[in-house]
Amino acid sequence: MSLKASSAPAFRDTATADGPPGRAPSRLKPRGLVRVPHGGLIVVLVLVAVFTAVQADSFTTSQNLLNVLRQISVTAVLAAGLTLLMTAGGMDFSMGSNAAVTLSVAAQLLHDGWSTAPTVLVTLLLATLIGLVNGLVVTFTRVAPFVVTLATAMLLDGVALLVLNGMSVTIGDKMSTLGNSELLGVPYLLIVAVLALALTGLVMRFTTFGRDAFAMGGNEHVARLSGINVSGRKLALYALAGALAGLAGLMLLSRLGAAAPNTGGLQLQLTVVAAVVIGGTSLAGGHGTVVGTTLGVVLLGVVANALNLLQVNSYYQYVVTGGVLLVAAIVNEFQRKSAPGH
């Protein structure tokens, strides 16, 4: 008995180095190799940036870099909400369309003489309500989130066109400070995006709400048995996703200075989904990372900018986004199957 007790810990330590407990490993992994988190993403991002800088001198100019940062800020805010939602096993394909509705309604209100503060408040409440409705349908009808939110996206795209009546609506210089001004050389839009990503990361890592999201994504039935209010958490997550979609819509309006048909919508949302999946957030739930999402957002933004600077046909951006999303989804699934417990 004493011999078994003393030898068991040593055997477990050896087994966990390469392979499941209880089985001696066939080989040990070299200790000198350190796995860099998101190393593949970083390498691809650096390669794309270097290639573009060599081919187009304007890529590294401060004006171009600030323009890229402003463009990806809207995507980053949407991606922050989607990362938390997907970690909990949810999905929302309507966030881009929600942003389009928010942008359209806000533009109409400002154009009709409303002041900025009430407009922002009303549109954020509207966006949050849209997210909450998604949550109610998903939670209490048991219809797949993919189906519910895709249908909602198509509905909201139509609503945005109806609000604008198919025409562009300008807002003058209202909200221009948020869209075009800077603080110590940093665009306000980027500051908002960084705050959204940072707060999402803190919530996921250090709060009960974040831990519950991971638990729900890992196994919703077990999470419910452990005492987590799964229904309440789902409603809160979808409402939060809606609120961030509304914020993104207002950010987009402040940058463009006008609302036009087909601004935002499902195409924007597909870019957001691609960024989140590329960053390593699991499509099945239970795993998510804000750092990875941030890298995914930056990568897609740099690729889009590179295609513009290299004067590549703009239609290829759709091809690139769709191709990247497909590859990322396949890699994501392989990683899920190779993870412990699968």
Provide a short characterization of the protein structure.
The protein has 342 residues and is mainly alpha-helical. It has helices at 2-15, 39-55, 62-87, 95-111, 116-141, 145-164, 176-180, 188-206, 208-218, 220-225, 230-256, 265-278, 290-309, 315-338, and strands at residues 169-170, 182-183, 186-187, 258-259.
Structure description:
It is built from 14 helices and four strands. The strands form two sheets. The chain has a two-stranded antiparallel sheet. Helix 3 packs across helix 9, helix 3 runs antiparallel to helix 13 and helix 4 packs across helix 12. The chain is globular and about 55 Å long. The N terminus is likely disordered.
The main sheet orders its strands as 1-4
H/E series, N to C? HHHHHHEHEEHHHHEHHH
- From the N-terminal CA to the C-terminal CA, the straight-line distance is 34 Å
Helix content: over 70%
Give the strand tally.
4
Largest sheet: 2 strands, antiparallel
Gross morphology is globular
Q: Unreliable runs, pLDDT <50, ≥5 residues?
A: 1-34
The total count of helices amounts to 14
| Coarse structural class | mainly alpha
Which helices and strands appear, and what pairs or packs with what?
Layout: H1 2-15, H2 39-55, H3 62-87, H4 95-111, H5 116-141, H6 145-164, E1 169-170, H7 176-180, E2 182-183, E3 186-187, H8 188-206, H9 208-218, H10 220-225, H11 230-256, E4 258-259, H12 265-278, H13 290-309, H14 315-338
Antiparallel strand pairs: 1-4, 2-3
Helix pairs in contact: 2-13, 3-8, 3-9, 3-11, 3-12, 3-13, 4-5, 4-6, 4-11, 4-12, 5-11, 8-9, 12-13, 12-14
